[in-house]
Amino acid sequence: MAKRQIKDDKTYRKLRKHGAGKEKAARIANAAAQLPEEGGEQGSRSGSYDDWSKADLIKRAKEIGIKGRSAVKKSGLIAAVRHR
After folding, report:
1. Which of 3, 5, 8, 4 is nearest to 34 (CA)?
2. Number of domains in the chain
3. Is 74 among the domain residues?
4. What residues make up the domain containing 13?
């Protein structure tokens, strides 16, 4: 029988400590190991909203709950999304 491997041992141990079963903790730890790390390297920057299309800005505004998105110019959407 093949030995099971835990890809994120730290997450596995934390889940086991909080009462998760071995199998469940292993599934979650292995799934978490496949996700990209949150945040970028220090000093990295995301793309400018100026480069986004108006449709993409409207979609982002909807995600964060800005009302009246469709009636606003692109420059107004950029300002609203930046300051939200």
Report:
1. 8
2. 2
3. yes
4. 7-35
